[in-house]
Design a protein that fits this description.
By secondary structure, this protein is α+β, with helices and mostly antiparallel strands. The chain binds alpha-D-galactopyranose.
Length: 653
């Protein structure tokens, strides 16, 4: 009997222990599962690594994040309550505005209202009985995510029984749309290229089709030669003028003929630059081997045959000190820049570099301040074809943010670049200050960043991409708006890479939108690790044709209704490229509740809204299929959540 009582006692103790009140702090959960709009989530620190502070109040614990932020936690119905203090971190800028939502099983349990910097932290204490899933969501407060550093301070869940568990965002299955590249030869874009009289000329003709493909070029101007084996036109750019050359590509399956126009003395980058940049994958860990590997992979993967050309080194190549002659050479990670340039040029590809008009780059390396001419000459000597010139520490040099001060360092470098013995495409990077799109061309820029840095989340990519309407009037051949580099494939901003966090539909949106926007297409991924999906995404010549259309128009937003957007871009022959997008609504439950497959939506546009008339054929560009029928009034399609239908409208005679 005594033994039985003892055993019962033990069972009672165990039971009471398992039912004991327990606490899990949000900072103890797996924060890699929390989606974030900028930076990395931080345990017990703000997103920038400072002590969590809201309106002067300091919190020991909590999670520092950045709008738009989402986290889903499985509660198994065993949670009792969620407690936290919510607010904008004091480290953020004055324009911060966010709204916090606590959701349980598709219901909003608590919402903060719009919160700004300096607002006292709001206390949250919400019962969670019987709730299965807790959603923590921070919106951009209805504007954009700039400066939206937000904290869930001292956040904890009280539970009894099974421990709450952070859930991974759902993974959408990949699906490929681009049909396989046909065996017949195809001469791909660009069909126009610019160079300056008397300077070195290099152009790789992008041709696909089963090898061997015989390529011939007729009517080359004096000074230029064609290397059949390498598919490269090279030599010295002829005098100012337009030279139309006939290119023929032939193999046992067929033949393609195209006219490619060499424009001498009409500027550079006559179509948006396409290629690769080291930043979004390697960050400051870039080195010569990685750049060489990127160039090799651009060719071996076939991307170069679809027009991808530039290999751009971003920050991190610079030596620690200038030489005695005040030259800025490369650091030990780049033992031979000239040999690297030769290797890249041998493929007919082009090499880019990065610097700052300030004394230091954003990554803390030496910039070109007070050595602009010398640096440009060094680059020309190495064989550099492209410069990304990043404002960074010029902040400390500029007297203020007036337009003359914003323009000054860019005008200065432009003159120097024009004087060197090479064509160097000039990319301004100053994150859109002073509406750079309105004067970027005037200061000599071939392209200019219109926004802050992109990251591989839907909120970052879509916020940047869908806000480019204001810049549309300023794009054209030789001068492009740059909404930042592509975030598909394997990325990382440092040595460790991860697969893009964009879903396949979001990636179709990204490439379609950047193509409609006539944006530079600069891949930010490790090209040696391209999976089939990414390669398929980047080799659709009908989509690339929208980006490389010689007219150089940038799409405008024709419609924006309740998460449905339509953008249209004029192509050279009077036809329109039209993107139907479904971005989802701002409803926090919809934004957050991804446990079910998100529904597609019907998006419509009429010819009247597009400003066109008459019968049209419709070509689905991703699928490369003409949709049966003649369309006389408009178009409507089921568009996936965060996805796109990209078409070309061809007027019937
Ligand atoms: C800035 C730019 C980025 C990258 C880094 C390099 O943040 O916007 O694109 O060039 O500097 O430090």
């Amino acid at each position: 009997m005594k033994k039985l009582i003892f055993q019962l006692l033990i069972v009672a103790i165990v039971l009471s222990c398992s039912e004991k009140d327990q606490i899990i702090y949000l900072d103890e959960t797996d924060l890699s599962k929390m989606e974030i709009g900028w930076g990395e989530n931080q345990a017990n620190q703000s997103v920038e690594g400072n002590p969590i502070t809201i309106a002067g109040e300091h919190f020991e614990r909590g999670v520092g994040t950045h709008a738009i932020s989402k986290m889903m936690i499985a509660l198994h119905g065993t949670a009792e309550k969620f407690e936290a203090y919510a607010g904008v971190d004091d480290e953020s800028g004055d324009r911060a505005s966010v709204e916090f939502f606590v959701m349980g099983d598709k219901m909003i349990l608590w919402q903060s209202g719009i919160m700004k910097k300096g607002d006292k932290a709001k206390k949250i204490s919400i019962p969670l009985e019987d709730i299965q899933k807790l959603g923590l969501y921070i919106s951009n407060g209805g504007d954009n995510i700039n400066y939206d550093h937000a904290d869930w301070a001292d956040a904890k869940i009280h539970y009894k029984g099974e421990k709450p568990l952070a859930l991974s965002p759902p993974v959408q299955k990949t699906y490929t749309l681009t049909p396989p590249t046909p065996p017949e030869p195809r001469i791909n874009y660009p069909w126009v290229t610019g160079a300056s009289p008397g300077k070195p000329f290099l152009f790789r003709i992008p041709v696909t089709g089963e090898k061997p493909v015989h390529i011939s070029v007729e009517h080359l101007p004096a000074g230029l030669k064609f290397d059949q084996e390498k598919r490269i036109i090279h030599g010295t750019t002829p005098p100012k003028g337009e030279y139309v050359v006939n290119v023929t590509a032939e193999n046992k399956f067929g033949k393609d003929v195209k006219r490619i126009t060499i424009k001498s003395g009409h500027g550079l980058a006559l179509t948006p630059p396409m290629g690769w940049n080291s930043w979004n994958c390697w960050g400051l860990s870039v080195d010569q081997e990685k750049v060489k590997a990127a160039a090799d992979a651009l060719v071996s993967s076939g991307l170069a045959d679809h027009g991808w050309t530039y290999i751009n080194i971003d920050d991190g190549w610079e030596a620690e000190q200038r030489t005695e002659n005040r030259e800025l050479l490369a650091n030990e990670k780049f033992p031979d820049m000239k040999a690297l340039a030769d290797h890249i040029h041998d493929y007919g590809l082009k090499l880019g570099i990065y610097s700052s008009p300030g004394p230091y780059t954003c990554g803390g390396y030496l910039g070109s301040h007070e050595h602009e001419k010398q640096d440009a000459e060094t680059w020309a000597d190495w064989g550099i074809d492209y410069l990304k010139y990043d404002w960074c520490s010029y902040n400390d040099i500029a007297a203020d943010r007036s337009l003359p001060e914003l323009k000054k360092p860019y005008i200065f470098m432009d003159k120097i670049l024009k004087d060197v013995d090479r064509d160097i495409v000039y990319s301004l990077c100053q994150y859109g200050m002073g509406d750079v799109w309105t004067w970027g061309e005037e200061v000599g820029g071939n392209l200019w960043r219109t926004t802050g840095d992109i990251t591989d989340t839907w909120s970052s990519m879509s916020r940047i991409g869908f806000s480019q309407d204001k810049c549309s009037p300023y794009a054209g051949p030789g001068h492009w708006n740059d909404p930042d580099m592509l975030v598909v494939g394997q990325l990382g901003w440092g040595p460790d890479l991860h697969k893009t966090r964009l879903t396949p539909d979001e990636q179709y949106t990204h490439i379609s939108l950047w193509s409609l926007l006539s944006a530079p297409l600069l891949l930010g991924c490790d090209l040696t690790q391209l999976d089939d999906f990414t390669l398929n995404l980047l080799t659709n010549d009908e989509v690339i044709a929208v980006n490389q259309a010689p007219l150089g128009d940038q799409a405008i937003k024709v419609k924006d209704e309740n998460g449905k957007q339509v953008w249209a871009k004029k192509l050279v022959d009077g036809t329109l490229a039209v993107g139907l997008f479904y971005t989802g609504t701002d409803d926090p439950v919809e934004a957050m509740w991804w446990e079910d497959e998100m529904p597609a939506s019907n998006v419509k546009i009429s010819w009247e809204e597009l400003g066109i008339e008459g019968s049209h054929k419709i070509r689905d560009l991703w699928r490369q299929k003409t949709i049966p029928g003649n369309f006389t009034e408009g178009l409507e399609a089921q568009v996936p959540y965060h996805g796109v239908i990209l078409v070309r409208l061809l007027p019937m005679e």
